[in-house]
Amino acid sequence: MQILVGIDTGGTFTDFVAWHKKGTLTFKLSSTPHNPAQAILIGLKQIHEKLQGTSYQVVHGTTVATNTLLERKGAKTALITTAGFEDILEIGRQARPEIYNFNVTRTPPLVPSDLRFGVKERITFDGNILETLDETELENILLECQNKEVTAIAVCLLFSFVNPIHERKIAEKLAQYFPISLSSVILPEYREYERASTVVINAYLSHKVGEYLSLLNKSLDKVVDNMPISLRVMQSSGGVISATVASREPVRTILSGPAGGVLGASLLARAAGFKQIITFDMGGTSTDVSLIDGVPSTTNEASIASLPVAVPVLDIHTVGAGGGSIARLDSGGALRVGPESAGSVPGPICYGQGEEITVTDANLLLGRFGSNSLLGGELKLDCKAVEKTFEKFAAEITKKTGHTTTPISVALGIIAVANANMEQALRVVSIEKGYDPRYFTLVSFGGAGGLHVAELAQALRIPKILIPPAPGALSALGGLMADVVKDYSRTVMISASDLHQEKALKIFDELTKVAQKDLIEEGFIANQVKISRRVALRYKGQSFELELDWSNKVLEKFHQLHEKRYGYADSSRAVEIVSLKLRATGVTIKPPIKRSRKSLLTAKSAFSSQVYFQKRAREVPIYHRETLPIGCKLVGPLIVLEYSSTTLLPEQFELEVDAFSNLVCKSITPPMNR
User: What is the pLDDT of residues 544-584, one digit of tens each?
Assistant: First the structure.
């Protein structure tokens, strides 16, 4: 029996979803930040003991690349570039994110000036060799890198995306001594700064991610008694790749974890009839949001830790607000929440080890968990420790501000501040990009999402909320629903009138052959491979382009999209094709999305509990989600308990269980007529 296992490593918990023909097993374990693989191996051992599979396909959403970059703990990296361009990382772009801030501190480049080397060579814009590579310089660079204990090298030469011959020669000379990342392999596109930044990040992450995945791969066999097992890793673009490719190109895994959630939410919502959604993934450390207008959108203009990353990533916005976000008073006496998190160690106070108040502790004090335990009773919560700490914090606030307050008021304030941070994130992906949130459905998941989603929907006048089954493990499930995806691109800079000429078609054919070869190596046969073609276009003279599916009507659609995005279009202007892009998809076996018939049973609450919505508590019915029949309707206030999450529904909201076991919630009094 083959078992499909999805694993998502978060800051607080590591989530597991194991699917096989007889059913699904879902559970959580505390993450092990010092060694993320430890929690994974423990979880896989439990799965194997319970299910006794004969083979395993593991898909892993990992935060190793993200944390390595954020914490600046990557490889000691050198950069080799064309002579005269050594300072490209330092110069960057003219863009100033904070134009009115006189005290801006720029993020230092990952490669210091003494490890940036220029070599004599020159390729022209059309790929001709103007100056042959001086290979004698590589001997000196090699010695200097060895003396300075460099552990990875990035190579980014001028116009190597047109002709990579010089980059390949450098790799031939140095690859036996260092791991080499070539820009002509990682990102064969123009824009020198973004290309250099991306390939440097790849080299910087290569040692940490490669070592982690290699050790994890070796350990998996021992855990499952040498049964056949394969490991794939979630990409930032919403597809998966083999652990071998992820080790070689770790820059593609920077948003590995959040991508699984966005993909899972999109597929489940689409099956239920919701095509326009905003995903709301609130975990222990952060909240990730993404707007989906039909299908998840990717971007090549992402920035991680203030560093540009130009490989395709899902358009996700992240804020430091989660269940473990720490509450504190700033120097002016104002209440702040996050971005610092208690994580899994020491964790929130209620978990038994923490000492600093978190959002989770505030929810517990307000009675919003409906009980004194989580994870189906496995995790007992320390209510007394939370009460004592809140009393001290309230006294501290009273002393510092001169205004008398109570623990309940403080807890409500923490929730309000956290909600404000998350509301701003939702506005960034919707209102600030020209989308009206009243036309969208808010899809909530993550362990903490259900406790905050109703208030956020009210604040943004979002009419409906969808909470899928096992929302706390949706990112892990999303990994199981992902296909193997590989992206290829080539900068061409040709007039749109040449779109169907031989040059464009020839390049697409070349990319297709490479893609098919790569997916065959991943174990796919021809009828399991899908190829999609896209083009990046702009009006001639513009600095940025728009991406569209390649078709006979691409010019017409470009003008329409330009009108929608920027408010104007000019069909008389010359249009330029900047890049040709190809996405190859290897279709994988996935868990089915099952539909059930409406039940005649009625829902009964298990018990009731005191819950604070404002400064006064009220008795609220508590339901167990597994007892809610398909088609049942409930009116708030109420709490729905389940293993991976808790859903809090205030007054003026009603809930219905749809045919896919989703909780579909909406306001009884619509916020505004459209």
Answer: 889 888 888 888 899 998 988 888 899 889 999 899 999 99
Question: What's the CA gap between 221 and 303, in Å, rounded?
Answer: 36
Predicted pLDDT of residue 674:
42
488 near 582, Cβ under 8 Å? Answer: yes
Residues 6+ apart with CB under 8 A from 51: 1, 3, 18, 20, 25
Give yes or no for a contact between 276 and 292, defined as CB atoms under 8 angstroms apart: yes
Q: What is the pLDDT of residues 111-138, one digit of tens each?
A: 999 999 999 999 999 899 999 999 899 9
Q: How many other β-carbons are positioned within 10 Å of the β-carbon of residue 141?
A: 20
Both structure tokens of 588:
């994988």
> What pLDDT sits at residue 670?
59
Strands 646-649 and 653-657: unpaired
Instruction: Tell me the two tokens of residue 321.
Output: 């607000």
pLDDT score of 2 more than 50: yes
Report how far residue 154's alpha carbon sits from residue 631's, in angstroms, rounded to the nearest whole number. 57
Residue with tokens 């909530």: 444
Q: Nearest CA to 116 among 149, 69, 155? A: 155
| 97 burial level (CB within 10 Å; 0-12, 13-18, 19+) | exposed
Is 508:582 a contact under the CB 8 Å cutoff?
A: yes
Binned at pLDDT 50, 70 and 90, residue 34 comes out as: confident
Residue 592: other Cβ atoms inside 10 A = 8
Q: State residue 567 phi and psi, 5-degree precision.
A: 90, 5
Q: What pLDDT does residue 363 have?
A: 95
Residues 554, 542: Cα–Cα separation, whole Å: 18
Report DSSP letters for 574-633, one per residue.
Answer: -EEEEEEEEEEEE----------PPP------SEEEEEESSSSEEEEEEEEGGG--TT-E
Strands 229-234 and 55-61: parallel
Which has the closest alpha carbon to 80: 125, 111, 126? Answer: 111
The yes/no answer on whether domain 485-586 falls in CATH 1.10.10 is: no
Give the separation between CA 655 and CA 668, rounded to whole angstroms.
Answer: 10
Q: How confident is the model at residue 600 (pLDDT cuts 50, 70, 90)?
A: confident
